[in-house]
Fold these 2 entries.
Entry 1:
Amino acid sequence: MTKLVLFNLTISIQKSSNFEFQPSPPPQWFGLWGRQWREDKMGVWVWKWWRDKNRCVNIIAHLFNAPLGDSEAAVGVGTVGSSEAIMLAGLAFKRKWQNKRRAEGKPIDKPNIVTGANVQVCWEKFARYFEVELKEVKLRDDYFVMDPEKAVEMVDENTICVAAILGSTLNGEFEDVKRLNDLLVEKNKETGWDTPIHVDAASGGFIAPFLYPELEWDFRLPLVKSINVSGHKYGLVYAGIGWVIWRNKEDLPEELIFHINYLGADQPTFTLNFSKGSSQVIAQYYQLIRLGYEGYRNVMENCRENMIVLKEGLERTGSFKIVSKDDGVPLVAFSLKDHHRHDEFEISDLLRRYGWIVPAYTMPADAQHVTVLRVVIREDFSRTLAERLVNDIQKVLHELDTLPSKLTSNGTIESQAVENSQKSTITHKKSDLETQREITTIWRKFVMDRKKTTSVC
């Protein structure tokens, strides 16, 4: 999402997906990508692509400490992203749970999955599409990830798995997978269940092994049965490529794997779609062999250093509270300390005038009263950009400080909201949240009307 605006680049720092590929690959790689082979067209080139995909699976599985023998092949598939990877992992958990329940003569009509309320929307899609109840652990002030204790309390005999996030979308924080594993081991012993864990490492899967190698979150923990990761985030590849790795063959039910031979040879397949381009797989393999462990570690360390520069710059303004953690995805999530004069949505709106796309959003239940701004540090986000962003945020704060307070602007905004409320034909009493939203809407209109009289070059 890079475009030219008044001779200035609009810099999208809202997501961790890659828009650039550094450095440029040699010409022969472009020749391979230009073919855009389809997975369903078997031939000599596709066999090479199939080989490269399996090599990627094996490299990533070893990176996640899968318990593999010297000559044992890893179990995993390439997908179009972590959303598809999570769908496949969820289907494997559901089928294993169903098989076990059938063997025990128990009903299979009420499967559920336990997650935090901070999960990405793909988990809600999986639950709705495949008829699985989603049991969410609510958030709370200053704790914006899933609480392992509360998660284990919600587990019952119908729980197909507990999903932990290594790198929350909201604030980049790593959930405590080891604590979750230890608590779940004890509960399984007490109940006789064997509830497993899936780790959604879409963002953190290519970060933790290089920045925090001693952190136990992966297949070193016995209950972790599958892990997904996005290659188009910190795997440093264009969208869309994702991966899902299983602990061993027993964790992927064989009946979910299809074998076809009408393309000229036996081809096992376990994906939601059939035909797709191969360029992202080749790009992932290129990055893995070009950078290696040291190369990825250098990139991640650089991202973390630039994250610290940005965080410290925001702290020096004295206006923001940092809600992200230093140990996690290299991003900075922050909120205003004082909301009397302006809010995070106004800062986000005005930053666009300086060429920055910085999202503002509210936290999920039960922390929806907290509003946050988020800046994701990618490979192409330099120290210079971090310092420039801090300067532009200070300019925005100064500009907003010159405006009347949205809560004390001669009572105009509040009185208008009250007047609108009185004119409404709806008889029910509005909640505090509804009233605040109405005030914010009127305030935004006031700011936008003022912008129209301000020249910008």
Entry 2:
Amino acid sequence: MIKLIQATVCILALFGLCTADIQANRLFKFIKSKHSRNSPNNNKWMVSEEATDEYSPVYIAPQDGLAELDKISALPGQPEGVNFSQYSGYVTVNPNAGRALFYYFVESPTDSSTKPLVLWLNGGDFAHTYLFIAS
């Protein structure tokens, strides 16, 4: 009886592995199709004929007092006595669409004006990571 159960479990496991392989292949095929030249989405950057040449201004809002509102006093588990300032919050990109970018900023405790700024953004198609360094 035990051998019958073991054999059944082995057969089901093999069937599961074969099915997983088929599903993985379908997923890879789907992902590749998004990047292929024949993809139905290959024209997503085309300009529509209804588009105008009007200037679209950048969203700029007052920033008075926002730094102090975003300042973090301490993170959970953070040891006491750290000597740097840290901030976290959202930067509004498009208020009409409700779009904002999350940020976490740590200021260097020494010579912060001479240190490079590192901006790390996650998101977009297939969750790409974008890294920007300014000095």
